[in-house]
Amino acid sequence: MNGKKxxxxxxxxxxxxxxxxxxxxxxxxxxxxxxxxAKGGHAGTLDPLASGVLPIALxxxxxxxxxxxxxxxxxxxxxxxxIATASDDAEGEVTATSDVRPAQGSIAAAxxxxxxxxxxxxxxxxxxxxxxxxxxxxxxxxxxxxxxxRKVLIHKLELLETPSPDEARLRLSCGPGTYVRSLARDLxxxxxxxxxxxxxxxxxVGRFRVESAISLDKLEAFGxxxxxxxxxxxxxxxLDDIPALAVTAEExxxxxxxxxLRDPRAEHSPPEPGALAVFHDGKLVALADxxxxxxxxxxxxxx
Length: 303
Description:
The chain is of the alpha+beta class and about 300 residues long. It is built from six helices and 19 strands. The strands form four sheets. Strands 1, 2, 3, 4, 7, 10, 11, 12, 13 and 14 form a ten-stranded mixed β-sheet that branches. The longest helix is centred in the first third of the chain and has 12 residues.
């Protein structure tokens, strides 16, 4: 006996409003402790200095984490002009300064250059792996890190306000892999100055918005009372955009065993191929691939 308390089987999503301070992994650990959950993961990392929407998957919901990989994310952030840092945020050492402060009109005029598909070089202080090592670990060890440019998609970028000549606040909607810190750095350079992110809040990940997220303080205040389960959304919450298919008990058992089925929809007309969320008696059985005639399980669920 090692004295450790056994973890519980808890399945579902917690849409967390992560505060500034903890890492995403630390926030996940605190959510797991509230539910005493045996298994968990998070969708889309937030830096310690960032706050906002951090979807937490518990138990069987972790099997749907990949469904977030291509989701749209929305942010509000502040840029400090005139100071560049090694990390492109307020944590890094100052690497350059400038006396140039862009005017509000100049900022607004530059934004269209940063919408659509653009080339972006991630920050050196990022979790991207280079030869098996995290870039930030190499940078902290004093090694020179060469980050490769890549394509990212910016759906929308707008100026919200300029509270002072030193600062601007912006709103961003973007595709996967976008670094807000890189965007702020590059925007500053395009405006003839340097800059870094001083505040970052993620307001949406896919269909999850910050307005419906729960704070870590509020969640932890529930303790181990039954009220905490009111913050737990069903596993299938993230699958709303996938066609659903109901099957019989026998068909559900076959899918759970990894066997393919004839697509029951094919009796009426050839079904469209693609992903399916398969249910029996209201419970999610599997994520499956339909090819028009057969259904093949990709992930099965124990719910």
